[in-house]
């Protein structure tokens, strides 16, 4: 009875926005996703960034070769069934799935895969991950079920970008000559759902009756509802008018406890960091940075910023789901001890003494100036973090102020190294620690102060790390890669170009009154990625009506 009443609510909402013909198929089970912001025009182009195409595009309509779980690196076959690197790691061979059809009933095969990647080479604006800039030289179909990728240099981490590229049908896209602006209003994919109805308030896809994975999905339709705010989205979840939402809130623990049938899963997939601008003194001094890092109480930072829902980061910066695989016991216990007394003594020993008034002096004997901690304007969690950091550093005789900037100023200052200290996330994460350390410390991603750096925000480089990054990407041997990660972790913890403050999580909220099978900590079959990502496809496949 409750299921019927809930569906009636959806029908009223949708009927107001969509034509009555939309319900011709009358789906028996509808999984509803709530959004706390609107979406754009009717665009289903899978080559465009997520913000430029509609939500089901890569989560329900188009499919990739594999899904790579960013939490633990687990690879789930999709249109690819297996893959193998050659001994020199310059050739990747992928076996594609047999018996798959596009939703126009044409057969899918390896030619579609090769076409997709060569199409990105022909139109570089589509190559969002830069696979053709990272060593890929050819993508060819050896036969109907085999694709061979060839590289001019070994770069095994590129696998995740190849694996997760949505594949398009050659027989349709070969004639599209304006892919950067093409809206693809009638998408033809291999995915578990097909397009149905669209408006600015509600969007629906229906189950693909000929989907290659027999028996799935278990639901007949997925509906997205647009709301104007987090509070409005939460209200729909609490009422049971929505089953799932990717919504960041201040206290998910209280949300789950106070509201019937509500749960959350916020797994860590990144970190929040206090970055030091190593292009300017005293942050150019590793001794200064090390001392300051030990004066920051990251547990207090996490508690005050996230009310206990998100913990302090590991000193290594490696996320919890990857620590057992990539860290030795000694690395797990290395560094990161909060000890303000030791920090004070270390600063003095490094040449930064205090005067009689307790003011910290530079090596020239002059009082250190007040330093700005850059955060995004209105970002309450980062503002709280900056307040705690400022209080901690004041105990050392170092004064700070909080510098709130709108996004353009914030990102511009971080990327041009015009800040003193700044709080931000890791500008690069993925299924292994390589992605974080590469994006954060690779020389090619740095730049001179005042110039824009893609992601090396601290402007820190280290020849040992650079060599370890090269070692990692030149091999597919796990033992060799683990040794390379150990070198990176050791160097970064010694030189402290940043302070890992708190874990950074995904934001899955559920109302479980109507469906089971959600991804959770006990069953993390996807990485809790947002509702418009390729990882969400696994949730839409696995949720079941009660």
Task: Describe, in plain words, how this protein is organized in 3D.
By secondary structure, the chain is α+β, with helices and mostly antiparallel strands. The strands form five sheets. It has a seven-stranded mixed beta sheet with strand order 8-9-10-1-11-18-12. A five-stranded mixed beta sheet has the order 15-14-16-13-17. It has helices spanning 2-17, 56-61, 110-122, 159-163, 170-173, 230-239, 252-258, 286-293, 298-306, 320-326, 329-332, 340-349, 380-394, 407-416, 433-441, 463-473, 478-495, 536-542; strands at 30-35, 66-68, 75-77, 80-85, 91-96, 136-143, 146-151, 193-198, 202-207, 221-226, 244-246, 262-265, 268-276, 371-376, 400-405, 421-425, 498-505, 508-511, 515-516, 544-545. Mean pLDDT is 93; it is low at 1-24. Strand 4 and strand 5 form a beta hairpin. Helices cover 31% and strands 19% of the residues. The radius of gyration is 25 Å and the shape is globular. It has three domains: 24-62 and 191-267 and 506-545, D-Maltodextrin-Binding Protein, domain 2, CATH 3.40.190; 63-172, Dipeptide-binding Protein, Domain 1 (Dipeptide-binding Protein, domain 1, Alpha-Beta Complex); 269-505, Dipeptide-binding Protein, domain 3, CATH 3.10.105.10.
Task: Summarize it.
This protein has 18 helices and 20 strands.
Task: Write out key terms for the chains shown.
546 residues; alpha+beta; D-Maltodextrin-Binding Protein, domain 2; Dipeptide-binding Protein, domain 1; Dipeptide-binding Protein, domain 3; 3 domains; 7-stranded mixed β-sheet; 5-stranded mixed β-sheet; globular
